[in-house]
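Assess the record.
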Amino acid sequence: MNETQVEQVAKGDDASSRFGGGQRWGFLFAPVDIASIVFFRILFGGIMLWHVSKYYRDDMIAFYYIKPPFHLTFYGLEWIRPWPGDLMYLHFAVMGVAACLVLIGWFYRAATIVLFLTFTHQFLIEKSLYQNHYYLMALISFLMIFIPAHRAFSVDALFRPKAASQTIPAWTLWLLRIQLGIVYFYGGLAKINVDWLHGWPMRIWLRRHTDFPVLGDYVHQEWCVVFFTYGGLLFDLLVVPMLLWKRTRMFAFMIAISFHLLNSQLFSIGVFPWFMIGATLIYFSPSWPRTLVYKLLWIPGRRPLPAAAPDKSKLTSRQKLTVALLGVYLTLQIVVPFRHFLYPQSESWTEEGHFFAWHMMLREKLVGLRFYATNPQTGNSGSLDIRPYVTERQIRRLGKDPDMILDFVHFLHGELLKQGNEEIEIRVLALAALNGRKPQPLVDPTIDLTQVPRTLFHQKEIIVPLTEPLREEAWEVPLLDWEQHPDLAKYFTSEKR
């Protein structure tokens, strides 16, 4: 490789015509500067280390994983449980060590595998804790197993100089770009729905921030609602194309910074905005960290990169396998988010197809929840106190999701039987107000849910279709007053039926 070609590799120019012999997929294996991948490795390792430290600092490990007697589970993954006793503390300690090793690039391959397994295990234990950014972090931890981001600026590269390299195959860079692009673009697609286009639930959220600096004076004005509603939609759909085009890249990045910083202040979405700001730099030239360091240290010119692998006329068997696996993974990422179309009702109402689909910040669902136990022989019925079995967060979350309600009812039924109770029936009154609508039942309150199995298919038997229309003004009756409200009193029954 001559000096000009080295310069092109450093800049991340499209080398598909120069490397790969004109093959259809040869461009995926063209060498690009490893610098941006190294930055991404350090960023991701740091974010994961911060995640672990936060769980220790706020005592969230015991609160979420050790103390609760019950965990809401994903269908088919009920076998994924917390470790017994206090072993979850050890679990998070191992995760933290793995994150630190990824950050510095030491025993990188083993560390990425351990990080993926420990984080994904934690992520899948409790369905009520689901966040889209946790799902993204699980996916990234999986992808980092296969991306050799430790070949430079790492302890591994220091101790094993023969394995070090200043270049990396282009597919590693594009895999991360596509993964992040899916998050942005699918988040925008999900916003193309009737509620969002009419300004719900953004209208509700903004009016909670009247004390926000400057913005608080305008949150009640309709133009502000329209700006945030359609601005968020257009940002999600257009930010990646604008980042890919060099002429609009810096402008798009500035908009992305503003967007994520504003989200971090308006909404409680944890580390996600900060991670996305750093991760979005993956769309810049692969050599941007190297170039930045040279400029900051006043190093003139560029240091030459090692020569690229020789040109090959055909893909090797290993390269063909890489292309095939990339195709399978990306196909799943593209198709799975559309599974909500397999269900007949809105996923914002039924939650069917909501998870693992990048449906971010689409609904405000206020729920009133009450469980009734009935002795079928005597007909005696009474309300159940579920607080000994679930946390406040679980209560808030499970009332929004019929599958979670079923999961908990089956657990609760088993607990009552263990306590020596006779065979009982359990019915649930779950009144939900979606995006400012008047509350209505989410599940049929007349059905004994102990006899209804969980399934991946539409729960037609128990889910009540959404019939309440959107309102010009949001329903603002306090939850504690629902039982006395004349429009809702018909749903409530006495404890003896």
